[in-house]
Amino acid sequence: MSKLIYTVSLLALLTASAGAQELIVEPVDDDIIADQTVSVMEAAQAALEQAAADLSDNLIGETLPDNDIQPYPSSKVTTRYFGQKDSDIVSDIPYGKNDEAGKTVQADDAKIYYEVYGSGDPVLVLHGGGVGSSYEMGRFIDELSKDYQVIVPSTRGHGKSEIGTAKITYEQKANDMLAVLNDTTEQPVIVLGFSDGAYTAYKLAAMYPQRIKKIIAIGAGEITPQTRIFPTPKVDDVIASDEAFMRGQIDIMPQVEKLQDYWDDYYNFYNHLTVSKETLSEVKCPVLLISGEKDTNAPLDTIIAAYRMLPKAEIAIIADAPHQVFLTNFAAVWDNIKPFLQK
Length: 343
Fold this sequence. Notes:
globular; 2 domains; Rossmann fold
């Protein structure tokens, strides 16, 4: 059953209650008590009227799909990436939610949302999968947009992009990104991708080599079905683990009612995926492969294997860093990227 979610401030009622207690302290005679009783009733009536006004002013809900994923109070919806800590250095620009820079393009059966920043040679920035978002790439976008035209899509099933009905494949992901590129620039592009975004970059370069100038691939090594098994997350569990992030995403998703089914398909796809020599050997452009030493999603031996399969690869391993290496040591990652961009 669809429902509407409301919030009502009780502050006025609590204030009136406190006021009523003050009004009847130390009564002097019956007339004073009568006057104070009238005052209490007037205060209560005012509180009820204020509560009704608050109900109207603070209506924040929307008609919900049957899966009952509820919108989060707007005062608590912020642009953030999954697992973001208060101490993290983040961008001031709400990447992925910035309508002033946002556009959509039809890619087969889904509308793909993207944003464009800066001017110059084009750079396509691709976030990670699952709980990935454009905002996690914010510091890259901040730096790149000083000198480049930066194209920032939300990939299918993420942020403001639709899920569609197409079977999940890297061919489909590459074609989605080709639609974005064709809508934006005729020039060959540099692609900076993280995790799923980097695997999409490999496939994009293999399928459409004339469109890709070079790739910066972060956390994306060789994959075989035995490499890693990801349990399928449940939407409610992910909300519980980072509610502010997930409510912020749910707030902008155009097909949120399909999210759990999409994740079921998405992680089944990942767990049966092969990205090996057949694909990597077809990536003819230069590739800078960056990895955290302690990446458990793409372990170091898989990164080295991919490095050996890519025809024109360089490699940078950041000491003591995890999968999200650029979130824990952005300076080291950026110091490796800058000279590669200038070659």
